[in-house]
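Same chain as my last thread, 159 residues:
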Amino acid sequence: MRNKPLLYPYGFEKKSRIVRLKQLMTLKKHFKRINVRVTSNNVFCTLIDVLRNKTLTLGYAGKYSVKTSKKTLKFSSKVILESFYGEIKKKLRGQQIIINIIAPKKLRKKIFWFFVNKLRKENKIIRKCIFNIQPQKAFNGCRVAKQKRKKRKGLRIFN
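reply #2:
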């Protein structure tokens, strides 16, 4: 049987995901949490030891000297995640992991598959992972797309 990750909220209701996370928190086993939060022009990654409630590692674009903007965030997020994962992979051995992802839809999928592939290849601890994926609105505040000017609408044939 293949090692498959536990996907939350995909396939489960929100209540069951919250109950599952609370059950995991009440266990006295030692586990860690990875938080990945994508803002409009930066990616913040944190590794937290939940038992001691202590931040072990913090990663962001400035720390890894990666220039980001709204346009280049899609490409630079992978570089940031790669360097963050390089820092923390020794600390994850034999641990249960909760991965919180807060990002827009397109980046959410990239971040999810990045962690699935890395954990499957290198540590083989994908069975011990829980993904807590939270949606985020688009950076433009979900406003309506701009209307094109009449001149830019394209070729017109005279009436």
